[in-house]
TrEMBL record:
CDD domains: HTH_LacI, PBP1_RafR-like. This is LacI family DNA-binding transcriptional regulator. InterPro entries: HTH_LacI, Lambda_DNA-bd_dom_sf, Peripla_BP/Lac1_sug-bd_dom, Peripla_BP_I. It comes from the Bacteria. GO terms for molecular function: DNA-binding transcription factor activity; transcription cis-regulatory region binding. It comes from Aliirhizobium smilacinae. Keywords: DNA-binding, Transcription, Transcription regulation. Residues 18-72 form the HTH lacI-type domain. The keyword DNA-binding applies.
Length: 348
């Protein structure tokens, strides 16, 4: 670039949002060269790309999404529709971390859309579709016949689900094998001499409740154990109510000698309730829990635990939605993580 061309680029004004012009001024390069360097164009040298990226990072440059959308029809946004629920185990942060690690090497940005599962789950999806505010969507808390999946499929919006459906529509998903987890939990408990087992499962509307019930009932049949009802308690019940119910359950003439939980947060309430009734964990009762962070055994080494790698789930979801945007067939973008039992805790 000659000196005349360099002088034609105005100097940046202090306090203004950095633009391609700002980077061009700071590097002495043309605006087109800067733009192509940031897009990793093959005809731009590696040293030039690195210089442009370094200046962009130092300036805090972010692409103007409105401009990108006008030029390309794309937003470069992946929307994560995440429910606001009562959880203490870092599920949300780990999910976001996993997704961000994958998107960090791309032109895509993550936008988290919080939503309460108690309200209409279609609202955030309809908003994204009506405004065209994302190129791809990640949703969770799946139902067997999920209207969000049907709508996004009909509108041809790339998406991936954290969990499975049963509605005859092939779509990308990543899931945890809750059926295998609960079945293996029953097996381990029976091996430890437990026979009266309760299951604290999700709300019946969710797919993973069905999977966990299938695993539980298969386990009870195969290993000759008996179910003790948890009544109306689910993993969505407020923790103080779970604690109170666990205490009442533990004071029955024939209380459960084991409880399987699908929520690490709820498991803390279960432990508090059973111990308030004078029952000792690992002695009179065993509690098996799924967790998204490996610290239940730090506070209660007597517990049996399985860790669901939510960070890895986030990575798989991000890879799948990017591949779907690129046109990869949904049948090729489906994966399930199996349970991995902690080496801590009581031995069988």
């Amino acid at each position: 670039m000659d000196d005349h061309s360099k002088r034609s680029i105005p100097a940046p004004i202090a306090g203004e949002r950095p633009t391609l012009k700002t980077i061009a001024y700071m590097t002495g390069l043309g605006i087109t060269t800067v733009s192509r360097a940031l897009k990793d164009a093959p005809d731009i040298g590696s040293e030039t790309k690195e210089r442009v990226r370094l200046v962009a990072r130092q300036l805090g440059y972010q692409p103007n999404r409105a401009g990108v959308r006008l030029r390309t029809g794309k937003t470069n946004v992946i929307a994560l529709v995440l429910s606001i629920e009562q959880e203490l185990m870092g599920f949300t942060s780990q999910m976001v971390q996993g997704i961000s690690e994958v998107l960090g090497g791309t032109q895509y940005h993550l936008v988290v859309t919080p939503h309460s599962f108690e309200k209409d789950p279609m609202v955030p999806v309809r908003y994204i579709l009506d405004t065209g505010s994302a190129d791809g969507v990640i949703i969770s808390r799946m139902e067997p016949d999920d209207p969000r999946v049907r709508l996004m499929t009909e509108r041809n919006l790339p998406f991936v689900t954290h969990g499975r459906t049963d509605m005859g529509i092939a779509h990308p998903f990543h899931d945890f094998d809750n059926e295998a987890y609960v079945y293996q939990a029953v097996e381990r408990l029976v091996r430890r001499g437990r026979r009266r087992i309760a299951l604290l499962a999700p709300l019946s509307r969710f797919s993973y409740q069905i999977h966990s019930r299938i695993g539980f009932e298969r386990g009870l049949t195969d290993f000759q154990a008996t179910e003790v009802s948890m009544g109306r308690m689910t993993t969505e019940t407020p923790l103080e109510e779970i604690r109170a119910y666990a205490e009442r359950l533990s004071r029955l003439p024939e209380p459960p000698d084991a409880i399987i939980s699908l929520s690490g947060s709820a498991s803390i309430a279960l432990v508090a309730g059973t111990e308030a009734a004078g029952r000792r964990l690992g002695k009179e009762i065993d509690i098996v829990s799924k967790q998204s962070a490996e610290f239940l055994n730090w506070i209660r080494p007597e517990m049996l635990t399985v860790t669901e790698d939510v960070r890895h789930a986030g990575q798989e979801l991000a890879k799948a939605v990017l591949a779907r945007i690129d046109g990869v067939a949904p049948e090729l973008l489906q994966s399930i993580d199996g349970p991995v039992w902690s080496e801590m805790g009581p031995k069988d």
